Amino acid sequence: MSPITHFLAGWVTANTASLNRHERAIVTIAGIAPDVDGLGIIAELATRDSAHPLLWWTDYHHVFGHNLLFGVAFAAVAWALAARRWRVAALAFASFHLHLLGDLVGARGPDGYIWTIPYLWPFSAAGVWSWPGQWKLNAWPNLLLTALLLAWTFYRAWRRGCSPLEMFSARMDGVFVSALRQRFGKPPTA
Ligand SMILES: [Zn+2]
């Protein structure tokens, strides 16, 4: 799925429990972190005309970050960084797996290529997930899911007074929330 959908799904996961701003950021990032393996595209594009092109995207996208080892490592970092260690590690682990699930069901390329999830990489070539029904990246279920996640994010921001913008700037977040409340009125418990 697209990084935006993963990001919003991570944000929703982060809001299923009582966490502080820092902890919500960790769980949200867990939902998008697997796609760091897509950054290899920069090296690949930069070197494609050289004598020794690097195939980091071709070889590692949907590999390096999309496996159990990466999920466990991320959860361990989450555990170390959070105050509510086990809660945040468990939610980060869940958020990471939602990403894998999203890619499994809806990440098919424009050429019809079905992405697989090498869950046990690099230890075993077995346990590679794939689903023949995988829909395309820009198919309607992905668009609908993104719209629903976005609607929930807006509702949550209006109701609870925090949005994903808090990860970038508390001030921006405050401006956004007060604009929503000016437009839609004050929430019952705010
Ligand atoms: Zn992915």
Write a brief caption for the model.
With 190 residues, the chain is an all-alpha fold. 56% of the residues lie in helices and 2% in strands. Zinc ion binds next to α6.
Number of strands: 2
In which range does the helix fraction lie?
55-70%
% residues in beta strands: under 5%
- Contiguous helical run count: 8
Q: Give me the Rg, rounded.
A: 18 Å
Q: Judging from the principal axes of the Cα atoms, what is the shape?
A: globular
**Bound ligands, each once:** zinc ion
Structural class: mainly alpha
Distance between the termini: 34 Å
SSE order, as H and E?
A: HHHHHHEEHH
Summarize the biggest pleated sheet: 2 strands, antiparallel
Physical arrangement of strands within the biggest beta sheet: 1-2
Can you tell me the residue ranges where pLDDT is under 50 for at least 5 consecutive residues? none
Mean pLDDT, rounded to whole units?
A: 95
Key descriptive features of the protein:
two-stranded antiparallel sheet; 190 residues; 56% helix; 2 strands; mainly alpha; binds zinc ion
Characterization of the model:
By secondary structure, this protein is an all-alpha fold. The protein has a domain at 3-134. Helices cover 56% and strands 2% of the residues. It has helices at 3-14, 21-30, 40-47, 56-60, 68-81, 85-106, 140-160, 170-184, and strands spanning 117-118, 128-129. A two-stranded antiparallel ribbon has the order 1-2. α2 (21-30) runs parallel beside α6. The longest helix is centred in the middle third of the chain and has 22 residues, at 85-106. The site of zinc ion (ZN) has 5 residues, from α6.
